[in-house]
Amino acid sequence: MKKNLFFTITLGSFMIFSCSKKEEKEAPVTESNDPVIEVVTNAMDFQMEDSIPSGWNTFRYVNKSNEAHFFVLEKLPDGIRLLNYENELIPVFKEGFDFMKLGNMEEGMKAFEKIPQWFGGVVNHGGVGILSGNSVGETTLFLDPGVYAMECYIRMPDGTPHVFLGMLKEVIVTDEASELVEPQADYNISISSTEGIQFQDSITAGNFQFGVEFEDQQLYEHFAGHDVNLVKLQEGASLDSLVAWINPSNMFALSSPEPKEFVFMGGTEDMPAGKKGYFKAELAPGNYVLISEVPDALNRKMVYSFKVY
Ligand SMILES: [Cu+2]
User: Fold this and answer.
1) Would you tell me the crossing angle of helices 2-15 and 90-101 to the nearest 10 degrees?
2) d(CA 72, CA 178)
3) Is the per-residue pLDDT at 10 higher than 80?
4) How far is the CA of 89 from the centre of ligand 1 (A)?
5) How many angstroms is it from 272 CA to the middle of ligand 1?
6) Which of 31, 86, 127, 217 could bond to 72 as cystine, CB 3.0-4.6 Å?
7) Greater confidence, 256 or 114?
8) Does residue 15 have a pLDDT over 50?
9) What pLDDT is attached to residue 7?
10) In the 8-state DSSP scheme, what is residue 180?
11) Cα 112 to Cα 104: distance, rounded to the nearest angstrom
C-alpha cells in the first residue's frame, strides 16, 4: 500500500514539474554547417517545424525565456496522437495533481487509476537537458519514424508542470532519412543504473561534443528514466541543494525559481538502453556537475563532479 502511494505521488510529480529562470548566460554553442532543427521557447511554448526527417538530427534549443526548460521526445505507441495525449492523459494528471496539491493523496491516487493503458507504451527518446533561460543548447539524437510528444515538465512553485501551461507539442518523424551522420565525440560520458554517471575528474576548457552512452535504462519512482544534465556551479553553490532541487519525487522541487548559483547548460534527456546521444557545450574554467534528474541522485551515483582548467 505504501509502495503504491509512493509510486502514485511520484508518478504525479512526473508530469507536474515546471521551469524557472536564470540570469547567467553561457556563450552560445558555436555554429557549424550541419543542418540543425531549431526549437524556440519564448515563454511556455515550443516553436519548431511540425515534421522532421528520421535518423540523426541536431536540435538547437534557443531558450528565450527567463526560466529554465528542457524537452524530452516521447515516442507514442502506434495510432496514438497528441490529441489522445491532451484529451485522455493530461486531464487525468491534472485531476490527480489537484488532489495532491491539497494533500489528498488517496484521491490523487484514485485519479491516476484512469491513466489510459497506452501510456505504458510511451518510450522516451532523448531531448535537450535542463537549460537556463536566455541560453542555447544543442543535442543530437537518433530518431526512428513515428509520432512524438515534445514535453517540458519543470514545475511552477505550486507544483504545476509546464506541460499544463503549453509546453507540449506533437513532432512527426518521417520516413525520409536525415543527411546528418553520427557526430564524433570529444569526450564520452556513460550512465547506467548500477554504476551511475561516469566521466573524468578534469578536462581543459573548450567547446566540445559530448557523447552520452546509455548502458541501461529503467523507470524510476517518477516514472521516467535516467538522463544527463550539465550544470556549472557558481560561487557558493552547494551540491546538496542541487540534488534537492532536481529531485522529481518531491512535487514542489524541480521548480522555478531554480537556485541562482547553478547554470544549466543542457545535456541529453533519457533514452533507451544501448542508445547514444550527443550534446555540445562550451566550457570555461570552473566547477561542473553532470547530474541525472532522478530521485535520490546522490546515493544512486547519478551525480558526477568535475573541474575545467
Ligand atoms: Cu519548461
Assistant:
1) 110
2) 20
3) no
4) 18
5) 22
6) 127
7) 114
8) no
9) 37
10) B
11) 13
- Closest by Cα among 52, 84, 88, 70 to 124: 70
Ligand 1 centroid–CA 7 distance in Å is 23
- Between these two residues, 251 and 272, which has the higher pLDDT value? 272
How far does residue 33's CA lie from ligand 1's centre (Å)? 29
Q: Is 13 helix (H, G, I), strand (E, B) or coil?
A: helix
Closest CA to 115 of 7, 24, 37, 253: 7
Residues 6+ apart with CB under 8 A from 280: 29, 30, 137, 138, 139, 207, 208, 209, 210
- In degrees, rounded to 5, the angle at the alpha carbon of residue 66 between the alpha carbons of residues 65 and 72 is 60
> Residue 276: beta bridge partners?
213
For ligand 1, the distance from its centroid to the CA atom of residue 28, given in whole angstroms, is 20
> Which residues are found with C-beta within 5 Å of the ion, ligand 1?
19, 69, 152, 154, 162, 167
* Cα–ligand 1 centroid distance for 141 (angstroms): 20
pLDDT at residue 105, as a whole number: 85
Q: What DSSP string runs through 244-291?
A: HHH-TTSTTSSBSSPPTTEEEEEEE----TT-EEEEEEEE-SEEEEEE
